[in-house]
Amino acid sequence: MSSCGAPEQTATRAEDVAGTDQVVVAGRVHTGGEGVSGAFVRLLDANGEFTAEVVSAPTGDFRFYAAPGTWTVRALHKSGRGQAEIVAADAGLHRADIALT
Known about the structure:
Layout: H1 14-17, E1 23-31, E2 34-35, E3 40-44, E4 50-55, E5 61-66, E6 69-77, E7 80-88, E8 92-95, E9 98-99
Parallel strand pairs: 1-8, 1-9
Antiparallel strand pairs: 1-2, 1-5, 3-4, 3-6, 6-7
């Protein structure tokens, strides 16, 4: 189940958004190479303000549709936390793979 009415999370490939004007921040939450299910993945804007949250899929995948800009993606799970910084200057897929520590 996803939070905030977000669609089920699945792996996102560059060809999934090619030819569109969408800015997609997507990736995978993992630990020890294994995807982490049920992590709360938060999208924060350049000022650190909360923008959106989804729950990672059983494979650890997550996806956000965002505006161009600088983003922090933070994952929280009972097994650890991690984050990635993304600069999404234009449309397309911007990867944010997150290793929990």
